[in-house]
Amino acid sequence: MLEPSNNDELPAIPGKRYFTIGEVSELCDVKPHVLRYWEQEFPQLKPVKRRGNRRYYQRQDVLTIRQIRSLLYEQGFTIGGARQQLSGDANSESATRYHQMIRQMRVELEEVLDALKA
Q1: DSSP conformational letter for 53
Q2: Cβ atoms within 10 A of the Cβ of 7, count?
Q3: In whole angstroms, what is the distance from residue 55 CA to residue 46 CA?
Q4: CB neighbourhood size of 118 (10 A)
Q5: Which long-range contacts (CB under 8 A, 24 or more apart) does 23-26 make?
Q6: 59-69 and 32-41 helices cross at what angle (nearest 10)?
Q7: CA–CA dist 8, 50 (Å, integer)
Q8: How far apart are CA 114 and CA 74, in angstroms?
Q9: pLDDT per position in the chain (118 positions), as tens?
């Protein structure tokens, strides 16, 4: 049974119990070294480790990784901000306000960069 993807550009998650780091890398469009780093930064990510310290991710891990990817790459959160969002500690109203401020700063900085190039 295939599950629809949360993000249109990401493939559907196959209906199997365990996924290797390579499979998760493809399913989430994130390099394996990034996944290993995120394991250190996000306590929610705890893949099962078996023979030879090989990682096996479960469906919930894949969904969590996709959520982390969205927070970092699409919504512009820092690692700390994404960690807070996942743990539910962040006040969503203030997080949204800060996110909007960051977007506005980006636009202004791009305008300054364009002016400097001219």
Answers
A1: G
A2: 13
A3: 9
A4: 5
A5: 23/57, 24/57, 24/61, 24/62, 24/65
A6: 90
A7: 32
A8: 23
A9: 333 344 457 888 888 899 999 999 999 999 999 999 999 999 989 999 888 889 999 999 999 999 999 999 999 999 999 998 888 754 565 666 677 778 788 888 999 999 999 8
